[in-house]
Each structure stands twice: as structure tokens, then as C-alpha cells.
Queue: 2 jobs
Job 1
Amino acid sequence: AQRVTQPEKLLSVFKGAPVELKCNYSYSGSPELFWYVQYSRQRLQLLLRHISRESIKGFTADLNKGETSFHLKKPFAQEEDSAMYYCALSVGTQGGSEKLVFGKGTKLTVNP
Amino acid sequence: DSGVTQTPKHLITATGQRVTLRCSPRSGDLSVYWYQQSLDQGLQFLIQYYNGEERAKGNILERFSAQQFPDLHSELNLSSLELGDSALYFCASSAYGGDHYEQYFGPGTRLTVT
């Protein structure tokens, strides 16, 4: 069965401190993972995709297949990073398409 | 702005009623996905349509149904509403990113059932 686990419901750091949001997944196929960010219950915005290995707003995430993890990291947190962060796994469906399976989310608060 | 639009933004209705949520995908996207976001269940996939046909089903109740029209907009119909149906309903459309699909989300419809 496919599953995404974000163990921390809440994470609070001070401005300028490093931040790591944890994500672990369970999937028998080849994983395609994403991080989405949601500010104040607005629309979900795609932040990162593992396949492109990019850095957006200072965030990076590395897929570790051995540990089945896709943790999101930023070396110096900013107050504007305060938001809900969702890790998502793209899984194939019987119809030959894909759907996203989301973790429960981590609410990040960056204090001044 | 992702290019995905949803109407209405907010909806307040009573138990037992029926509502219709509307979604317009990004220009050129053929797939539409519906997700429900609630405080207790988190974000859950409901259903997907591709070019007018149902492609995948998730945790969608029998009281809920959806369709995608020839102009590719989609509607999610929720009937016999219960208090527990209060949630944020997101629509997403997808584009092929070269070797995988990426989903882009609309602003959501906040449904409150009283």
C-alpha cells in the first residue's frame, strides 16, 4: 500500500535557524515525490519535485530510496516560510493515470 | 496563480441539501482531479477525469459524483449533505513535465454544512 508519513504535525523554529521537515514514504513502485506548500488555507502550491533536483525559495529535498525519505530542508528559515507543508507521492492508478497521496502535513512556524 | 479556477469560493448550506462545485482546468490540461481537505482526514483524493472520462476513483462517497464536460471543465456534485462534509474541496489539473505528471491546484471551495 502507498503511504506518506510526515511525523511532525507542528514545527517551530527561530528566524535564521536551519529547518528540516521530515517525509517518509511507502511505495512498491518507483517513487515520484513532491513538496507542496499552503499559506493560510489557500491553494496548494507546488514547491519542489524530486525529479528536477532544484532549489526553490532556498528549500531543497533529496530522495533517499534506502531510507524511503524525502526530507525538505532550508539552511536559514525566514518568517515568510511559515505555512503548511505537504509531502506527496504520485502513484499510478488502474486507469493508467496518476493520483497524489498526501501526508498529513507539517505546520511550520518561523518566529522572529 | 496556477491557472486553475474554482467557483464558488465559499458555500454555506444545510444538512440534506445538494451543491455543485465547479472547476476549470488550465488551458490545455485534459485531466481534472478532485481532492477533499478536512481537519481530521487531511488531503484525500476523490476522483479524476481525463478528457471527459472517469479515470480513477479514490475515497469518494456514493453521495458524491463528478463529471467533466466537452469544454473540459468539471463539476463535483455533493448530495444529502452531512455536517462531516464540511471541508475545503480542491480541484487540480495536470500537465506532463517530461517524464512525470505535475498537478496544479485551484484556490478551493470552502463548504460549510450547518
Job 2
Amino acid sequence: AQSVTQLGSHVSVSEGALVLLRCNYSSSVPPYLFWYVQYPNQGLQLLLKYTSAATLVKGINGFEAEFKKSETSFHLTKPSAHMSDAAEYFCAVSDLTQGGSEKLVFGKGTKLTVNP
Amino acid sequence: GAVVSQHPSRVICKSGTSVKIECRSLDFQATTMFWYRQFPKQSLMLMATSNEGSKATYEQGVEKDKFLINHASLTLSTLTVTSAHPEDSSFYICSARDFGYSGTPSYNEQFFGPGTRLTVL
């Protein structure tokens, strides 16, 4: 089964600073990888996804992530944090359900705090 | 983008009662819907996958008789928590997928609902 590890349950940055959220995956085959954002008491919104095309993936709201097979990583970055980026971020990898269809396996999440 | 709604957004019930949560795809037909459970400050755990017109497939450890899932139409799936107990209190999130929606050849995006906060007293 696939798994995802997010290093750091809580990351705090200053407004305007670089955002780096770490994600490592375990997969025996090339995976599909995703980053989602969740605001309080809301569902998840897709930020970006890697599906074996370009290794540098650009997403919404200025976020991007780079797939590094040698490091089994898919870290999320944003050059300059904005107050509105404060949220919970989840990295996910595709896997198969008990019935054989595709599902998402999520990491434990990283809460991003942006300080003024 | 595609929109998924959930109703209710919040529900409080007494122990022993049953609660039904609806998940609707508003502007697309969802051939597959997923139900997740999220504990406070934790990740989402997939409970079951439902395909329209067929029985849901439950993940290991999820009680089928406890969490009844019905996917009777291409736009509606329901999750019923039967004989709810305080340990069932959680945030339940559904997602929907449409194989006809634009995306990669091998993966079709899941669109998430806003979630339902269940509190069992």
C-alpha cells in the first residue's frame, strides 16, 4: 500500500517569506501525487497534481511542487507567503481501494501559520 | 470547477439515533463517490467507495452495518450512521469523481464537499 509522510505538523512563516511544506511518499511504481488545501471547517481544494508529466508542477495561488524520484519527495513551495495562505495542507498519493479502483491516501497534514 | 455539496453541514444527535448525510454533485454526474472521515487535527481516512447503482466497497476496518452508503443516482450519495455513539463524532467529507471530466488519461480528479460535522451526545 502507498503511504505519504508529511514532515512537520505545523509550519510558521512570516508574510512574504518562502513557504516550504515537505512530503515524502512510498511507492513501488511511479505514483500520482497531489497537494490539497483545507480551510477551517471546509472540504479540500486541489492545489496541484503530478501525473508523470513535467516534474515541476505549478498550481493555483502561486504554489508549485517538484517531483523528485531519487528522493521520493514532492515538496510544496511558494516564494512569498500571504496571510490568506494560512490553512491545513495535505499531500496525497493515489492507491487502489479494496475493490481495485483508485483512491487517495493522505498524509497527516501540515498546518501553515502566516505571521504578519 | 465541479461543485460538490453536503447536507447538513453540522448535526448534533443523541446516542442511539441514526443520522443521514447527503452528498450531491451539482454540475456533473458522479460515477464514483468517496466517503472520508477526519478526526480532529488528523488526516482523512477513506471509509468507502460507492459507484452508482452498485454496492459500496468498504475499506478494511469500517463497519458496513454501521455506516450505510447508498449511491442511487449519478448526483447523490448518502451516508447513514446507524445507532450513533459518541465515538462516531467526527468530520465526514465526501468527494465525487466523474470519468468524463477533463483530466489525465489515467486519473480523474476528485472534487470534495465542504464536510459535515457530526456530534453525538
